[in-house]
Amino acid sequence: MYYGSHGLQITARRSIALSVKTDTAPGGIEFLRLIGTSNVVVRHVKFSVIFVAAAVAILSAQSGAQAARGEVCGVPAPAVDSGAVSRRWSIGGWFAGGTHEPIKTREGHKEDRALFLAGISASQLLGRWRFGELRYVPTLVPAVIATANREYERVVYDGGGVGLLPYKKTAFGVGLIPIAAEATLHLSDRTGIVLGGGGGAAYFNRRIPDPDETRFNFLADGHTGVYVHSSAGTLTLGFRLQHISNGDTGRVNPGLDTRMLYVGFNR
Fold first, then answer.
1. Strand, coil or helix: what is 42?
2. d(CA 257, CA 104)
3. Per the CB 3.0–4.6 Å rule, which of 43, 118, 170, 246 could disulfide with 143?
């Protein structure tokens, strides 16, 4: 069914239009607020970030006064030259995506949206311990694609009733995550576990996920995965929980929490 700019076809799908009280505040749609808000990072993201902090504390406790990592469980450990590595940056990229994710709309709770992100990260070693290391990883997000954002057309029925007819729009954005860190736990000389989290912001070409929302939104994430070293570089596969919300700067703040799979590569 096509919705033109000068008219609407409201035949078989009239039943999905939302009734509106015409005596409420401007436009008669003030009472159509999204149920619930999410102006803070979801507890899953918080838990991931706390987990990273705990991992760093454990690693710090293991470091002692060592200047280099010794051999642990048969795994060779390279010597540490903190003065040299602290100034060295490496560049990597990653892609994350999640589909059939929940969204709070004026029609109720739906699970029909998707979110895709591509990131370019710079990584700098902050410290190395017996079982791992900690890195600062600020990230540029040149592509954020969020689908199934709602917009609404006001319609008038033949009998005089008024309703809202929803339809979906895809939003495109760019973002920056300047506050981010990753803790690496070594399992062998080639494999290990990565725990990370970060926060930043993104700007979209339309208001998401509701027309009463904002184009500017905050980002927060927690992620974990496994990495494999090779002569070509380091490949990481993992899980990411991404939070997007406007921090109560819009008329509504439903928030978007997305479970995503991600793949990354770093040389």
1. coil
2. 11
3. 118
User: Which residue do the tokens 């570089």 mark?
Assistant: 233
- Residue 88: the pLDDT is 84
Looking at residue 141, what DSSP letter applies?
E
Cβ atoms < 10 Å from Cβ of 76: 10
- Which residue in this structure is represented by tokens 């039943």? 15
DSSP H or E run through 216: strand 214-229
- Does residue 203 or residue 157 have the better pLDDT? 203
Q: How far is CA 194 from CA 104, 209, 240, in A?
A: 32, 31, 11
Residue-wise DSSP of 179-196: EEEEEEEESSSSEEEEEE
Distance of alpha carbon 136 from alpha carbon 89, whole angstroms: 10
How far apart, in whole angstroms, are the C-alpha atoms of residue 173 and residue 212? 18
Question: What CA–CA distance (Å, rounded) separates 97 from 262?
Answer: 7
Q: Which CATH class is domain 46-63+89-266?
A: mainly beta
- Kindly report the pTM of this predicted structure: 0.69
Question: What residue has token string 């999204």?
Answer: 34
Domain residues of the chain, as ranges?
46-63+89-266
Amino acid at 131: F
